[in-house]
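Just curious. Invent one:
>
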Amino acid sequence: MGKFSGKTALITGSGRGIGRAIAVKFAQEGANVIVNDLHDDDNAKETINQVTATGAKGVFLQADISKVENVQALMNQAVQAFGQVDILINNAGVEIHAPFWEVTEQQYDIVMNVNTKGMFFLTQAFVNHLRNTNRPGVIVNNSSVHEELPFPNFTAYCASKGAMQMIMRNLAVELAPLNIRVNNVAPGAIRTPINADLLSKPELLGPLQNNISLHRLGEPEDVANVMAFLASDDAKYVTGSTYYVDGGLAYHYTEQ
Protein backbone atom coordinates (compact mmCIF):
# COMPACT_ATOMS: atom_id res chain seq x y z
CA MET A 1 0.00 0.00 0.00
CA GLY A 2 1.43 3.34 -1.04
CA LYS A 3 0.94 6.74 0.53
CA PHE A 4 -1.72 7.64 -2.01
CA SER A 5 -3.67 4.39 -2.42
CA GLY A 6 -7.26 5.23 -3.33
CA LYS A 7 -6.45 8.86 -4.04
CA THR A 8 -6.34 10.82 -7.28
CA ALA A 9 -3.73 13.47 -8.08
CA LEU A 10 -3.93 16.08 -10.84
CA ILE A 11 -0.49 17.29 -11.91
CA THR A 12 -0.29 20.19 -14.34
CA GLY A 13 2.60 20.51 -16.79
CA SER A 14 3.53 16.88 -16.31
CA GLY A 15 4.46 16.00 -19.88
CA ARG A 16 8.16 16.06 -19.07
CA GLY A 17 10.81 17.24 -16.60
CA ILE A 18 9.86 17.78 -12.98
CA GLY A 19 6.17 17.24 -13.72
CA ARG A 20 6.84 13.79 -15.16
CA ALA A 21 8.95 12.84 -12.14
CA ILE A 22 6.11 13.94 -9.83
CA ALA A 23 3.56 11.93 -11.83
CA VAL A 24 5.69 8.79 -11.69
CA LYS A 25 6.45 9.21 -7.97
CA PHE A 26 2.77 9.58 -7.12
CA ALA A 27 1.95 6.56 -9.27
CA GLN A 28 4.58 4.52 -7.43
CA GLU A 29 2.83 5.51 -4.21
CA GLY A 30 -0.50 4.19 -5.49
CA ALA A 31 -2.28 7.31 -6.77
CA ASN A 32 -4.51 7.52 -9.78
CA VAL A 33 -2.66 10.12 -11.83
CA ILE A 34 -4.08 12.76 -14.14
CA VAL A 35 -1.34 14.02 -16.42
CA ASN A 36 -1.97 17.48 -17.87
CA ASP A 37 0.01 19.48 -20.36
CA LEU A 38 -0.39 22.03 -23.12
CA HIS A 39 0.12 19.47 -25.88
CA ASP A 40 -0.95 15.86 -26.35
CA ASP A 41 2.38 14.77 -27.83
CA ASP A 42 5.06 12.11 -27.47
CA ASN A 43 6.23 13.64 -24.18
CA ALA A 44 2.77 13.30 -22.66
CA LYS A 45 2.47 9.73 -23.94
CA GLU A 46 5.82 8.84 -22.39
CA THR A 47 4.67 10.17 -19.01
CA ILE A 48 1.50 8.09 -19.21
CA ASN A 49 3.57 5.04 -20.19
CA GLN A 50 5.82 5.50 -17.15
CA VAL A 51 2.81 6.05 -14.87
CA THR A 52 0.96 2.93 -16.02
CA ALA A 53 4.17 0.88 -15.92
CA THR A 54 4.01 1.20 -12.11
CA GLY A 55 0.63 -0.52 -12.12
CA ALA A 56 -1.23 2.72 -11.37
CA LYS A 57 -4.02 4.18 -13.46
CA GLY A 58 -3.25 7.28 -15.51
CA VAL A 59 -5.07 9.49 -17.96
CA PHE A 60 -3.95 12.48 -20.00
CA LEU A 61 -6.02 15.66 -20.16
CA GLN A 62 -4.90 18.42 -22.52
CA ALA A 63 -5.51 21.99 -21.37
CA ASP A 64 -3.98 25.45 -21.66
CA ILE A 65 -4.33 26.59 -18.05
CA SER A 66 -3.59 30.21 -18.95
CA LYS A 67 -7.27 30.49 -19.94
CA VAL A 68 -9.76 30.35 -17.08
CA GLU A 69 -12.48 28.57 -19.07
CA ASN A 70 -10.02 25.76 -19.80
CA VAL A 71 -9.15 25.44 -16.12
CA GLN A 72 -12.73 24.73 -15.06
CA ALA A 73 -13.14 22.25 -17.92
CA LEU A 74 -9.92 20.50 -16.83
CA MET A 75 -11.18 20.07 -13.28
CA ASN A 76 -14.55 18.79 -14.53
CA GLN A 77 -12.83 16.24 -16.78
CA ALA A 78 -10.50 15.18 -13.98
CA VAL A 79 -13.46 14.49 -11.68
CA GLN A 80 -15.20 12.55 -14.46
CA ALA A 81 -12.09 10.44 -15.02
CA PHE A 82 -11.79 9.05 -11.49
CA GLY A 83 -14.85 10.32 -9.60
CA GLN A 84 -12.90 12.73 -7.42
CA VAL A 85 -9.62 14.62 -7.09
CA ASP A 86 -7.79 14.59 -3.76
CA ILE A 87 -4.45 16.23 -4.55
CA LEU A 88 -3.64 19.17 -6.81
CA ILE A 89 -0.05 19.75 -7.89
CA ASN A 90 0.31 23.14 -9.59
CA ASN A 91 3.48 22.36 -11.52
CA ALA A 92 2.97 24.03 -14.91
CA GLY A 93 5.16 27.06 -15.44
CA VAL A 94 7.01 29.10 -18.05
CA GLU A 95 9.90 31.53 -17.99
CA ILE A 96 11.06 34.02 -20.60
CA HIS A 97 14.54 35.53 -20.63
CA ALA A 98 14.53 39.24 -21.41
CA PRO A 99 16.14 42.39 -19.99
CA PHE A 100 13.51 44.32 -18.04
CA TRP A 101 13.54 47.22 -20.50
CA GLU A 102 12.72 44.86 -23.38
CA VAL A 103 9.91 42.81 -21.82
CA THR A 104 6.78 42.99 -23.98
CA GLU A 105 3.20 42.89 -22.79
CA GLN A 106 2.77 39.55 -24.55
CA GLN A 107 5.78 38.04 -22.75
CA TYR A 108 4.56 39.37 -19.41
CA ASP A 109 1.07 37.99 -19.99
CA ILE A 110 2.34 34.54 -21.00
CA VAL A 111 4.35 34.19 -17.80
CA MET A 112 1.76 35.62 -15.42
CA ASN A 113 -1.21 33.85 -17.03
CA VAL A 114 0.36 30.40 -16.71
CA ASN A 115 2.34 30.74 -13.49
CA THR A 116 -0.11 32.81 -11.46
CA LYS A 117 -3.56 33.11 -13.01
CA GLY A 118 -3.73 29.48 -14.11
CA MET A 119 -2.60 28.26 -10.70
CA PHE A 120 -5.04 30.62 -8.94
CA PHE A 121 -8.15 29.58 -10.82
CA LEU A 122 -7.35 25.86 -11.03
CA THR A 123 -6.87 25.91 -7.27
CA GLN A 124 -10.22 27.68 -6.96
CA ALA A 125 -11.90 24.99 -9.08
CA PHE A 126 -10.28 22.28 -6.96
CA VAL A 127 -11.35 23.90 -3.70
CA ASN A 128 -14.93 24.20 -4.95
CA HIS A 129 -14.86 20.51 -5.88
CA LEU A 130 -13.74 19.67 -2.33
CA ARG A 131 -16.37 21.96 -0.79
CA ASN A 132 -19.12 20.46 -2.92
CA THR A 133 -18.14 16.95 -1.87
CA ASN A 134 -17.31 17.88 1.75
CA ARG A 135 -13.84 16.35 1.63
CA PRO A 136 -10.33 17.38 2.73
CA GLY A 137 -7.58 17.93 0.19
CA VAL A 138 -4.00 18.95 -0.43
CA ILE A 139 -2.46 21.55 -2.74
CA VAL A 140 1.26 21.69 -3.48
CA ASN A 141 2.63 24.36 -5.81
CA ASN A 142 5.88 23.98 -7.70
CA SER A 143 7.26 27.44 -7.09
CA SER A 144 10.95 28.41 -7.36
CA VAL A 145 13.83 29.74 -5.31
CA HIS A 146 12.96 32.89 -7.25
CA GLU A 147 9.88 33.45 -5.13
CA GLU A 148 12.59 34.80 -2.79
CA LEU A 149 15.83 35.11 -4.77
CA PRO A 150 16.34 37.84 -7.41
CA PHE A 151 16.94 36.63 -10.96
CA PRO A 152 18.00 39.43 -13.33
CA ASN A 153 16.46 39.23 -16.82
CA PHE A 154 13.55 37.17 -15.45
CA THR A 155 11.59 39.84 -13.59
CA ALA A 156 8.15 38.69 -14.75
CA TYR A 157 8.99 35.12 -13.70
CA CYS A 158 10.12 36.27 -10.26
CA ALA A 159 6.96 38.35 -9.89
CA SER A 160 4.82 35.33 -10.75
CA LYS A 161 6.57 33.14 -8.19
CA GLY A 162 6.47 35.85 -5.52
CA ALA A 163 2.73 36.03 -6.10
CA MET A 164 2.51 32.26 -5.79
CA GLN A 165 4.20 32.49 -2.40
CA MET A 166 1.63 34.96 -1.05
CA ILE A 167 -1.31 33.10 -2.57
CA MET A 168 -0.08 29.95 -0.81
CA ARG A 169 0.28 31.72 2.53
CA ASN A 170 -3.16 33.31 2.28
CA LEU A 171 -4.86 30.08 1.26
CA ALA A 172 -3.15 28.11 4.03
CA VAL A 173 -5.01 30.33 6.50
CA GLU A 174 -8.26 30.67 4.57
CA LEU A 175 -8.63 26.99 3.70
CA ALA A 176 -7.49 25.49 7.02
CA PRO A 177 -11.07 25.41 8.38
CA LEU A 178 -11.95 23.23 5.37
CA ASN A 179 -9.09 20.83 6.21
CA ILE A 180 -7.25 21.78 3.02
CA ARG A 181 -3.49 22.14 3.29
CA VAL A 182 -1.41 24.33 0.94
CA ASN A 183 2.38 24.41 0.56
CA ASN A 184 5.06 25.33 -1.96
CA VAL A 185 8.13 23.49 -3.14
CA ALA A 186 10.85 25.85 -4.37
CA PRO A 187 13.35 24.11 -6.67
CA GLY A 188 16.68 25.62 -7.53
CA ALA A 189 18.72 24.51 -10.54
CA ILE A 190 17.34 21.14 -11.64
CA ARG A 191 18.54 18.93 -14.48
CA THR A 192 15.56 19.24 -16.85
CA PRO A 193 14.97 19.87 -20.58
CA ILE A 194 14.39 23.58 -19.86
CA ASN A 195 18.04 23.76 -18.76
CA ALA A 196 19.46 21.93 -21.78
CA ASP A 197 21.32 25.02 -23.02
CA LEU A 198 22.86 25.60 -19.61
CA LEU A 199 23.94 21.98 -19.26
CA SER A 200 25.73 22.09 -22.61
CA LYS A 201 27.86 25.14 -21.75
CA PRO A 202 30.55 24.60 -19.11
CA GLU A 203 31.24 28.34 -18.98
CA LEU A 204 27.70 28.85 -17.66
CA LEU A 205 27.29 25.66 -15.65
CA GLY A 206 30.52 26.06 -13.68
CA PRO A 207 29.77 29.45 -12.10
CA LEU A 208 26.24 28.32 -11.25
CA GLN A 209 27.46 25.18 -9.49
CA ASN A 210 29.90 27.33 -7.50
CA ASN A 211 26.88 29.19 -6.10
CA ILE A 212 25.22 25.95 -4.98
CA SER A 213 26.40 24.69 -1.60
CA LEU A 214 26.26 21.06 -2.79
CA HIS A 215 28.06 22.08 -6.04
CA ARG A 216 25.74 20.17 -8.35
CA LEU A 217 22.35 20.42 -9.99
CA GLY A 218 19.38 18.61 -8.56
CA GLU A 219 17.41 15.87 -10.27
CA PRO A 220 13.66 15.98 -10.98
CA GLU A 221 13.20 13.13 -8.51
CA ASP A 222 14.60 15.32 -5.72
CA VAL A 223 11.65 17.66 -6.20
CA ALA A 224 9.14 14.83 -6.64
CA ASN A 225 10.16 13.24 -3.34
CA VAL A 226 9.45 16.44 -1.39
CA MET A 227 6.18 16.90 -3.27
CA ALA A 228 5.12 13.41 -2.23
CA PHE A 229 5.97 14.12 1.40
CA LEU A 230 3.97 17.36 1.48
CA ALA A 231 0.97 15.79 -0.26
CA SER A 232 0.90 12.81 2.12
CA ASP A 233 -0.31 12.34 5.67
CA ASP A 234 3.34 12.39 6.73
CA ALA A 235 2.96 16.18 6.45
CA LYS A 236 -0.56 16.42 7.91
CA TYR A 237 0.55 19.25 10.25
CA VAL A 238 2.36 21.22 7.54
CA THR A 239 0.63 24.12 5.81
CA GLY A 240 1.66 27.60 4.71
CA SER A 241 5.30 26.65 4.15
CA THR A 242 7.82 26.76 1.33
CA TYR A 243 10.27 23.86 1.17
CA TYR A 244 13.47 24.71 -0.70
CA VAL A 245 14.95 21.97 -2.88
CA ASP A 246 17.96 23.86 -4.16
CA GLY A 247 21.16 22.31 -2.81
CA GLY A 248 21.71 25.48 -0.79
CA LEU A 249 21.48 27.94 -3.70
CA ALA A 250 19.08 30.46 -2.19
CA TYR A 251 21.21 31.30 0.83
CA HIS A 252 24.67 30.22 -0.30
CA TYR A 253 27.45 32.23 1.33
CA THR A 254 31.14 31.52 1.73
CA GLU A 255 34.12 33.51 2.99
CA GLN A 256 36.79 33.95 0.35
